[in-house]
């Protein structure tokens, strides 16, 4: 990893004190922790960092919580920091979970604020990426206060509200979209029992983004976890209720550091489950053995959901019966598991090819949700327009005319900010 791909950071507090790392939420900078610093630096060397493309940090995007954790560990390695406590808010909490799973011998204790085992739905995060590609970050920035703060706080603190809006507005759009992808793919429900450090889970009582129920799910899954609900707080709890958050962090990290004063226990080995046929596969050297190592159905289902969206795929599978079930399995295994997963061209290019083929054959129902998929795969409305103009030359003007009508409707639906969007028809055709 190059120095440029480590994370922009700053440290405060005594050089010889134990290290406490504070992780930011999506769309914020390390300044979201400013009001915790005076008290925390009495006993800790506090390290704060910016996500890529946030604040003044270089725009080397990362698209998974694990990738952020890897960059943070590289940053700490550069600074000679081996062991540390960690507190993170929202996306910063997801990074903390990955740190505890990836480097359990280095994390002394953990605090997860406004966090969840899985943040909303993958579709909702990818939809946000589509809106940003089309409209920029301004629509997201303008709706930030209602997601981050309670109405009373927002009305009483207009300067903080404006600060929040400007933080989001000045974030690099590509890095924000990549962070949305990181949240779309984050799902640690089945891994929480591997977190072996004392964990404080904190939630704002009025948080609508990650409600207290999400915090309770974390506590239920992590073996040594306790819950704190902060009254009068929404999603950006450290900003809205700084005193309460600071007190909770001091008590938690003071206790856990005392508990670990004797030194870290030897890390327990992580034993991955052995899939069926693993021993047989290991003994074979032929190409057929390599084919046994992956299940094209599972791979295909993952890609199908990423491209078409969970809601669409769920509706298609729910409508399957004895007559159509085998066809759904066939499509998942061969179209999505064998073709869409090939590495010869990227998903953007595959979307261009698919749109062209569907226009040429007049499959307008399929075209509708593949326009939606193309937006999720990174094509902009302007690029989709160019694809359809090209089809007018080679597939015929009437075919392209019908395609423009379908694509225009879908693009309007998908690029409208969430708070102005009309619900999609439940009887929308289901394709593959």
UniProtKB/TrEMBL annotation:
Cited InterPro entries: 4CMD/NDH-1_regulator (IPR052512), AB_hydrolase_1 (IPR000073), AB_hydrolase_fold (IPR029058), AhpD-like (IPR029032), CMD-like (IPR003779), Decarb_PcaC (IPR012788)
Ranges where the AB hydrolase-1 domain occurs: 18-126
A Pfam family per the record: CMD
Domain Carboxymuconolactone decarboxylase-like: start-end pairs: 326-408
Record-level Gene Ontology MF annotations: peroxiredoxin activity
Listed name of the protein: 3-oxoadipate enol-lactonase
Source organism: Streptomyces qinglanensis
């Amino acid at each position: 990893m190059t120095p440029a791909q480590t994370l922009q950071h700053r440290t405060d507090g005594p050089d010889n004190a134990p290290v406490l790392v504070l992780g930011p939420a999506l769309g914020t900078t390390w300044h979201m922790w400013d009001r915790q610093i005076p008290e925390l630096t009495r006993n800790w060397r506090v390290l704060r960092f910016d996500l890529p493309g946030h604040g003044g940090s270089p725009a080397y995007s990362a698209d998974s919580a694990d990738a952020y954790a890897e960059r943070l560990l590289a940053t700490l390695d550069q600074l000679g920091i081996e062991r540390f406590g960690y507190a993170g808010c929202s996306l910063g909490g997801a990074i903390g979970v990955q740190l505890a799973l990836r480097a359990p011998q280095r994390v002394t204790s953990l605090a997860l604020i406004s966090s969840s085992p899985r943040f909303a739905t993958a579709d909702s995060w990818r939809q946000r990426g589509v809106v940003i590609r089309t409209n920029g970050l301004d629509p997201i920035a303008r709706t930030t206060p209602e997601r981050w703060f309670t109405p009373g706080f927002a009305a009483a603190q207009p300067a903080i509200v404006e600060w929040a809006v400007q933080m989001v507005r000045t974030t690099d759009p590509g890095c924000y979209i990549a962070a949305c992808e990181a949240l779309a793919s984050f799902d640690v429900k089945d891994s929480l029992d591997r977190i072996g450090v004392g964990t404080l889970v904190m939630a704002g009582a009025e948080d609508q983004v990650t409600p207290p129920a999400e915090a309770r799910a974390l506590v239920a899954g992590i073996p040594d976890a306790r819950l704190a609900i902060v009254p009068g707080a929404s999603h950006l709890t450290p900003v809205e209720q700084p005193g309460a958050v600071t007190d909770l962090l001091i008590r938690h990290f003071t206790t856990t550091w005392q508990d670990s004063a004797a030194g870290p226990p030897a890390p327990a080995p992580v034993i991955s489950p052995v899939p069926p046929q693993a021993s047989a596969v290991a003994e074979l050297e032929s190409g057929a053995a390599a084919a046994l190592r992956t299940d094209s159905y599972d791979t295909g289902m993952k890609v199908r959901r990423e491209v078409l969206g969970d809601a669409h795929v769920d509706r298609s599978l729910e409508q399957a019966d004895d007559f159509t079930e085998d066809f759904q399995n066939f499509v998942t295994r061969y179209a999505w598991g064998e073709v869409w997963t090939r590495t010869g061209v990227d998903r953007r290019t595959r979307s261009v090819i698919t749109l062209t083929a569907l226009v040429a054959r007049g499959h307008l129902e399929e075209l509708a949700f593949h326009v939606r998929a193309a937006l999720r795969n990174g094509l902009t409305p302007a690029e989709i327009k160019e694809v359809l103009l090209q089809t007018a030359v080679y597939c015929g003007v009437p075919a392209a005319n019908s395609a423009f009508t379908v694509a225009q409707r879908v693009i309007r639906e998908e690029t409208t900010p969430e708070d102005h969007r009309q619900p999609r028809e439940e009887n929308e055709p289901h394709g593959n």
